[in-house]
Each structure stands twice: as C-alpha cells, then as structure tokens.
Amino acid sequence: MTIHFYIARKFTWIFLGLLTIFFILMALINLMEELRRFDIDEVGFASIILLTLLKAPEGLYQLLPLIIVLSTVALFVGLARTSELVVTRAAGRSALLSLLSPTAVALLIGVFAVTTLNPVVATTSVRYDQMSDNLRSDGLNVLSLTDEGLWLRQGGSEGQAVIHAVRTNADATMFYDVSILAYYKGGGPKSRIKAKSANLIEGAWELHSVKSWPLIQGINSEERSTEQDVMIFSSTLTPDRIRDRFGTPAAIPIWKLPKFIQDLKISGFSARRHMVWLNMEIAQPVFLVAMVLIASAFTMRHTRFGNTGVAVLSSILLGFALYFVRNFAQILGENGQIPVLLAAWAPPIASVMLALGFLLHMEDG
What is the band of 243 on the pLDDT scale with cuts at 50, 70, 90? Predict the structure, then answer.
C-alpha cells in the first residue's frame, strides 16, 4: 500500500507541474492572440488580461489527455532511471500491479474534470464570448433558449428588437408563432408585431400572417393596428449566426446539458451534436485511463535496454493518434454517420483494450 501511495503522489505532482506549465504557455499564446485582435488603446490592457485568463481554461481542458500522457511518461522514465521499477519488480510486484496507482489517479482526475472543471470551463468560455462580443460590437445580437421557446435580440442602425418564437426548423431558417418588439435607437418601444411564421432571408425577416401595433404614447394601439399577409422586417441576423449563438456544446455545463438537449428538441433544433458531446464527456475518465496505459506500455522498462527516446516518442505519437481517432469519431457522430454511443464510447474502450494488449505483450511477467 505504501508503494501505491508513493507512486500516486509522484504522479499527481508531475501532473500538477505539467498542468501549470501548459497553463502559462496557453496564457502567453492567448495574450498574443488578443493583442492582435484588439486595439489595446481602445479596450485597455486590463481587458486583454481578463480575456486571456478566460480563454486559457478551455484550451487547457482540451489538452488534458496530452498532459496525462506526458505525466505518465515522466513518471515511469523517472522511476526507471532511479531503478525504483527494478526494486518493485524484485519485491514480487508485477508491472500491471504498479499501474494501479497512476490509473486510479487518472480516473479521479477524469471524474473531477467532468464534474467540476467542465462547468468552470463552460462558464469562462461563455463569459469570454460575451466580453469579446461586447468589445467588438456592443453585444447587439443575443440568443437564449428556454421552456417558452427561442428568444433573440438583434441590433442595427434603426434600433434594437427582441424576437420570440415558439419553435423553429433544424437549420434556423423558418420560425413559428413569432412575436417582435421593436425599439427606437434611443431605447423607447416602437412597435409590436405578431406573425404566424417568419422566414429568415438575406438581411430581413419575411413575416407571414402579420398583425402589428404601433407603440406610441397617447394613442390606442389596437385602433391603429394593421394586418398584412406578408411583411418585411430588416434584420442583421443570419441562420449561421443564430446557430453559432448556441455556442459549442462545451460552452454548456454538463449538469445543464440534458435539459438543454431537451429544450433543443422541443424548439425543433437538432440536438445530436450536444448528445455526442455529453456522452464523450462522460467517457472522458475512461479515455484518460487509456492514455496512462498507452504511455506506460512503452516506458515501463529499465533504461539499460536503451532506445528510451524512441519509446517515449512512440507513446506520445500513439496518444496523439488515439486522440485524433476520438475527434474523428466525434465528427462522424455529429454528422449522423455512426450512432451517438458508438462515437462517444468506442474510441476510449478500444484504446484501453489496445493498451492492455501492448502491456501484456511487453510484460515479461
């Protein structure tokens, strides 16, 4: 048990050290990117720093499997150079038994990442997007999804408008049971519009079966109301912009993702992308365990055998290859070419089986 705790503690400290190094690197890269995107004289250096810190956790979360691979490589190369692996083997402890500690730590890291870091990363990503949009365009276009349907806010030279639709089609081009509240550029209400349906065309909403009420102080809005079969209402929104406003599934905390998927289905949007992401996040701890097993299969040997550099390079390249396969399966799942569960769970499980095969082949008992 003492050996298990020793290896687990060593692996944890190596992981935290690499995590800190990668965080600093990500922050520096993001800082350069934000300085390129924004004029520091206009937004201020404090805003640039805040954007950098908000963006860094997302990139770090994506690199988590790579950090696990590097931590495992560093752990077993260090143990081999100090002959600690030889001592544990001489004591009758097999290599597979020595893997229990780093595997358990990787599993706990994966569970912690999914349950705790995922909501943190989602919150910082949303905050980054909001702040970035505010600095670029004053946040004129906003979208939200609730039980009551779809809410949009658009802005332009003529003023802003709040748009509500009960549901929409999958590609966000046709909306049903639409209500629009238009405002003057100064901020006061201008008119209220209700339509049976609305088609989003180039630069405008094409409203059908429309009734509109002018919102002018001192007049009876119902008496001045008008009805039209078709009405054109200018818009700065596009279907792509509306879909992008949902953000990536990574921008939604995992605890809220099932409810969001349900709301997407009710509103008429395809929730397949979010379902794939949800299952991939749940499978994340298994994939991190696979990264530990893959890296250890090449590095759990004494340095006197030579070719340590080749072994380290092989483990890192194989880890990258499995990471690429996992992302490729995600794309196939999002496009509907393979089932959701297969896209999310097949790569981690296959990676674990492959790593165990390598370990059993290389372990001399």
Answer: low
